[in-house]
C-alpha cells in the first residue's frame, strides 16, 4: 500500500468515527496536559530555588578553617601560608579571601531616607573580601579599597537582602521600595566597637565612620555588609582582634566538573568546605523534585487510562470493521498494511492529544501566573512565572501522546492483521 493511499484511508477512518476519536483525543490531552503542567511547575520553582533563593556559582568552593585542630598541618588557621597552598592546588583558577569583622558595630540612622524621615538603629555585621570576588557588581568608577582618612568605607549589600527588604520589611514599615540604581552612593553612619547586644564593647575607643554603598551583589554577605578585606584587617588589628586569620577562602575551579577534585584536595590539607547553603538548596530542590515526580506519576496514570481507552476503542473498531479488513486483504493489502493502518489512526489521535495537552498546559500556566500576580501578595523571591517550558518538554509531550496511543492500539492492530481474509469477508 502506497503512503498516499495509507494516509487517505487513515483520515477517512478517523472521520467515520469522529466522536469516539475525539473522546480518545480528550483522554490523551488530559493526561499529557497534566503531566506537562506539573513538570513545568517543578522546573519553574526549581529554577527560582537555584537562581534567586540560593544563587551559587557552580565553580566556587568555599574553604573554612577546621572546627577541630587535627592533621599534619594542625588545622590551626587559614592564614596567608595556607592560602598560598590552597591557591596552588591543581585545577584552581583563583582564590578570594574573606575575613569577618571581629568587632561589634552599629548604625544609628536619623535623617531623610529616599523621601521619608527615618530613625533606626541596628547591629551591623560585616565581612571583608578581596575585590576580585565582587568587582563585576561594583558601580562603574567606584574603587573597592580601604579608604584613606575620613573617606567613607565602600560597602556592598546582598541582592537577596534587598529583595527581603522590598517585599517584607519596607511594606510592613511603610518605607519606600528601593532599586539598585537608587542605592548607588547611599551613605549611612557606622559606629565601630559598639554594640546594642553585647554587654561589653570592643577594647578601645569606638570609631565613628561613614559607609557608602558601592553596589549590589549576589556574592555579598546576606545578613550584613561586605567591605574591602584590608578595611576588615585594619579594624580588627585596631581593636586587638585576629587580623591574620581568614574566615574563608573562595576557590574558583577551572571548570564545574573539577569542583569535587578541588574539594577533596582541600580536605586532604586538613580544611573544611562550607557547603551549607548548597546543601540547603539541594534539599529544597529535592523536595520540589519529589513533589513534581509524585504529581507526574499521577499524570502518567491518566495517560495509561487513556491508552486503555484507545485499546478498547480500537478493539471495538476491529470487530466493527472485520468485513472491511477482509476486503482490504482480498484486494492485495498485506497483514503489515492492516497493522500500519490501525497504528496510523492511533498515532494521529496521540499526536492531536499531545499537541492539545501541551497547549492546554501552557494556557493554564499563563492563567495561573496572571492569577498569582493579581491575588498573591508580592512576597520575597516571588517569580514573574512559576513555570518553565523548555523545548524538550513540549516535544516530549507530543512524543508521549503518540507513544501512549500506539501502546494502546498495538494489540488490536496486531489482532486485525491476523484476521483470515476469507472468514472476515464471510462474517
The oligomeric state is single chain
Give the strand order, joined by hyphens, for the main sheet: 9-5-2-10-1-11
SSE class: alpha+beta
Q: Number of helical segments?
A: 12
Largest sheet: 6 strands, mixed
Task: Give me the Rg, rounded.
Answer: 33 Å
Taking all residues together, what is the mean pLDDT?
Answer: 87
Low-confidence stretches: none
Estimate nothing, just give the exact number of structural domains: 2
The sequence of SSEs as H and E is HHEHEEEEEHHEEEHEHEHHHHH
Shape: elongated
Distance between the termini: 24 Å
Quick one: how many beta strands?
A: 11
The percent of residues in helical segments reads 40-55%
Strand coverage percent? 15-25%
Membrane topology: Multi-pass membrane protein
Protein name: ABC transporter permease protein
Main location: membrane
GO molecular function, one term: transmembrane transporter activity
Amino acid at each position: 500500500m502506497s503512503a498516499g493511499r495509507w494516509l487517505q484511508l487513515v483520515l477517512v477512518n478517523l472521520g467515520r468515527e469522529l466522536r469516539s476519536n475525539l473522546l480518545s483525543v480528550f483522554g490523551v490531552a488530559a493526561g499529557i496536559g497534566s503531566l506537562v503542567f506539573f513538570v513545568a511547575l517543578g522546573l519553574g520553582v526549581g529554577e527560582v530555588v537555584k537562581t534567586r533563593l540560593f544563587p551559587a556559582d557552580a565553580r566556587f568552593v568555599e574553604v573554612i578553617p577546621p572546627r577541630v585542630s587535627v592533621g599534619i598541618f594542625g588545622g590551626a588557621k587559614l592564614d596567608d601560608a595556607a592560602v598560598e597552598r590552597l591557591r596552588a592546588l591543581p585545577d584552581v583558577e583563583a582564590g578570594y579571601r574573606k575575613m569577618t569583622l571581629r568587632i561589634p558595630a552599629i548604625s544609628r540612622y536619623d535623617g531623610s531616607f529616599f523621601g521619608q524621615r527615618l530613625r533606626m538603629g541596628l547591629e551591623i555585621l560585616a565581612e571583608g573580601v578581596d575585590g576580585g570576588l565582587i568587582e563585576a557588581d561594583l558601580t562603574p568608577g567606584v574603587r573597592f579599597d580601604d579608604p584613606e582618612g575620613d573617606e567613607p568605607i565602600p560597602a556592598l549589600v546582598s541582592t537577596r537582602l534587598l529583595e527581603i527588604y522590598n517585599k517584607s520589611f519596607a511594606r510592613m514599615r511603610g518605607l519606600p521600595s528601593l532599586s539598585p540604581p537608587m542605592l548607588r552612593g547611599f551613605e549611612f553612619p557606622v559606629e565601630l566597637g559598639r554594640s546594642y547586644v553585647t554587654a561589653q564593647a570592643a577594647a578601645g575607643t569606638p570609631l565613628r565612620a561613614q559607609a557608602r554603598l558601592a553596589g549590589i551583589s549576589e556574592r555579598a554577605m546576606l545578613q550584613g555588609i561586605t567591605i574591602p578585606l584590608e578595611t576588615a584587617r585594619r579594624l580588627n588589628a585596631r581593636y586587638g582582634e585576629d587580623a591574620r586569620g581568614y574566615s574563608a577562602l573562595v576557590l574558583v575551579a577551572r571548570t564545574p566538573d573539577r569542583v569535587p577534585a578541588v574539594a577533596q584536595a582541600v580536605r586532604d590539607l586538613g580544611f573544611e568546605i562550607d557547603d551549607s547553603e548548597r546543601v540547603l538548596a539541594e534539599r529544597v530542590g529535592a523536595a520540589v523534585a519529589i513533589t513534581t515526580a509524585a504529581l507526574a506519576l499521577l499524570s502518567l496514570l491518566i495517560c495509561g487510562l487513556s491508552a486503555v481507552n484507545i485499546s478498547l476503542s480500537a478493539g471495538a473498531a476491529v470487530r466493527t470493521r472485520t468485513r472491511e479488513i477482509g476486503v482490504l486483504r482480498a484486494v492485495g493489502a498485506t497483514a503489515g498494511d492492516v497493522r500500519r493502518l490501525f497504528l496510523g489512526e492511533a498515532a494521529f489521535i496521540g499526536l492531536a492529544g499531545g499537541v492539545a495537552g501541551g497547549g492546554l498546559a501552557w494556557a493554564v500556566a499563563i492563567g495561573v501566573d496572571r492569577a498569582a500576580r493579581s491575588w498573591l501578595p508580592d512576597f520575597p523571591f516571588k517569580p514573574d512565572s512559576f513555570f518553565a517550558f523548555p523545548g524538550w518538554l513540549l516535544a516530549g509531550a507530543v512524543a508521549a501522546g503518540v507513544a501512549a496511543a500506539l501502546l494502546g492500539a498495538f494489540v488490536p492492530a496486531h489482532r486485525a492483521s491476523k484476521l483470515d481474509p476469507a472468514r472476515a469477508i464471510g462474517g
